[in-house]
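Hi U.,

Before I forget, here's the chain from the pilot set. I'm dumping it here mostly so it's searchable later in email.
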Amino acid sequence: MGTEDPGADPEPKRADWTPKEVDALVRYLHRHRAERGDTGSFHQSTYANAADHIRPLLVSGKVKDHKNVSIKWGALKQTYNAIVTYRSKLGEHWDNERGANIGGALAAESWSKYVAANAQMKPFRNKGWEYLEFLEDIFPQG
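Structure:
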């Protein structure tokens, strides 16, 4: 017997996201970017509508609700911020086709050290991120 409050909202279960669901979510939020608040988050109703939008794509696993969508959006923002931080570093290469475009032993060693402290960048050693332009529109710079 636990001492949990039976009336409390349970923590959302971890949701596995398929590439199609992630793609549909990013595109949905991009279309609704005017609903984004100052902190880069959306209203709960936008997350709920996004969850409804991606529901037909569910093949198996947990149906995503507004909480799962909000958590996934937070992870996408973290990836975006990691890329923005990396490419703002003086002398660091980034293009959205080849990512950091790491080649050669010295660059690989430097990259390994960077990724040790910035694990979100690991997938982008030699490839870009398909959602970068969408998030750049959602978070305009300047």
